[in-house]
Write a structure and sequence with these properties.
By secondary structure, the protein is mainly alpha-helical. Helix content is 89%, strand content 0%.
């Protein structure tokens, strides 16, 4: 047995172990259909990833898909849009919490709003530094 795609093998092994542990805990504790469905799903995903990592043809297909320019372009676009949406949502949430906390004179809500400002600011600086880096590089 030769492993052709090590990252897929590790992911598959982790998912399989996770599915088996969840299945084992279902039988030890009370039976829950939601957990059974989840464990079956994770277990089948893990087995599928293990199968793809051991098969030479499937591993080659996975590596080709990963290197495809269209897939990389879609990945970059989706990550950029998700960052933009996350920044907008965190800014709106921060603004609402600061206003509600100030109007209600609740220092805890103002503190939570201030805490949300920190990751928002970090994401803005990371985006700025990435833009500067790629402008200099290209």
């Amino acid at each position: 047995m030769k492993i052709y795609n090590k990252s897929s093998f590790v992911e598959g092994f982790f998912c399989t172990i996770l599915g088996l542990v969840l299945l084992f805990t279902i039988f030890i504790t009370s039976f829950n259909i939601k957990k059974l469905i989840l464990s079956s799903l994770v277990l089948f995903i893990g087995i599928g990833l293990l199968q793809r990592s051991i098969s030479k043809a499937m591993s080659l297909e996975d590596k080709t898909d990963k290197l495809d320019e269209r897939n990389q372009f879609i990945s970059v676009k989706s990550k950029g849009k998700s960052l933009q949406i996350t920044q907008i949502i965190s800014w709106i949430l921060m603004l609402i919490l600061l206003i509600v906390g100030k109007v209600g004179d609740n220092i805890l809500i103002v503190s939570v709003g201030t805490g949300i400002m920190i990751p928002f600011t970090v994401s803005l600086f990371v985006e700025l530094f990435c833009m500067i880096y790629y402008e200099i590089k290209n």
